[in-house]
Write a structure and sequence with these properties.
By secondary structure, the chain is of the alpha+beta class. The chain has two helices and eleven strands; from the N terminus they run H-E-E-E-E-E-E-E-E-E-E-E-H.
Length: 157
């Protein structure tokens, strides 16, 4: 009689974990989308970076969105403009900063989408997205243009 109870409990635990994983609520990472525009609901964006995985024609990309201290919503590709070819040129949030996993450069949220060049997340400037009161849309066409900077993303040598 104990075995059915244990099996039932295990199924409940596994099922709950599956629901959380499918909802994308673990560690600020959302469920992946494939071969379409990325739509980021403004209501989801907070001071903690949210990471949006995208698969474009078999290449895995990631966009990050964060609310800067001045209240503006900022977006960037989650890859470093200098370190992207290393395979480890992506960012993770540590406290109030983003840290490059290749070189360790620390990057304040207020710097996201402000400048291009250097060791920082690749910005997605206003002319490359559509912003409404409720959502930010980044077109599949624009995402496709960024594929080359993700060719070795999150891969080692």
């Amino acid at each position: 009689m104990r075995k059915p109870c244990i099996v039932l409990i295990m199924l409940m635990v596994l099922g709950t974990g599956s629901v959380f994983a499918q909802s994308g609520q673990l560690n600020g990472v959302k469920p992946a989308i494939a071969d379409r525009d990325l739509v980021i609901p403004i209501a989801e964006v907070t001071e903690n970076a949210v990471f949006y995985p995208v698969d474009i024609e078999g290449t895995r990309l990631e966009v990050l969105a964060v609310k800067a201290p001045d209240g503006t919503i900022r977006t960037a590709f989650n890859t470093c403009q200098v370190c992207y070819a290393s395979g480890r040129g992506f960012y993770k949030q540590q406290g109030t900063v983003l840290v490059c996993q290749n070189c360790g450069n620390r990057f304040r949220m207020s710097q996201v989408e402000v400048r291009s060049g250097g060791c920082n997340p690749v910005p997605i400037f206003p002319q490359s997205k559509t912003v409404t009161d409720t959502a930010i849309t980044i077109s599949k066409t624009y995402l496709k243009e960024a594929k080359q900077i993700f060719a070795r993303w999150r891969r080692s040598n």
